[in-house]
Amino acid sequence: MSFRLLLDFKFFLKTVLLSLFFSNFVAWSMPAFAENPKIMIYGDSLSAAYGIPQQQGWASLLQKKLSSEYYQYEVINASISGETTSGGVSRIHNALAQIKPSIIILELGANDGLRGLPIQEMTTNLNTIIQQGKKSGAKILLVGMRIPPNYGPQYTKLFSQSYVKLSQQHQIPLVPFMLENIAAKANLIQDDGLHPNATAQPLVLDNIWSHLKKLLKK
Known about the structure:
This protein has about 220 residues and is α/β, with parallel strands linked by helices.
């Protein structure tokens, strides 16, 4: 073999080895660059940190808790203050397309109840959101609410029962009441008498976490 041919062979062998090494390195490294699955919080002012700094809201606290317990999820808070279930229906398609969540925490209905909107309308809207979420492949955690008896005991009862029925119909987990051990406690509610204050946010997260954890994967 001539000296020229020997150099060409060494160069070819070096190129092949480098190519194999690079291919293996890329294959090994790709999972590290994969996007983390997303948890989309789809709610109203109770989830949008109304009246308090965003970093003190339960959605931000959830991201910290996930990280501290080594869950590789990214929390996207798609909540809007004042949102009703009809507003939720109007934007769910775009939200799913843009965020592509693995899990949806659905927290809507409180504003429907405070406005005395028809229970059947609210139920139909929540049903639509759940159906679209499930169709996208996301798991759904439904967050239940209760309201004061301003519109009479019958309306109040039907309102809270609608969440239970939706949970059973779609076989999805339900947080019975987002503000359990918080509502009607002056030290945990803002001056408007409706929204949990910063002190209450960890308690809100506690009410949700035990149900959400069952949907998580490490």
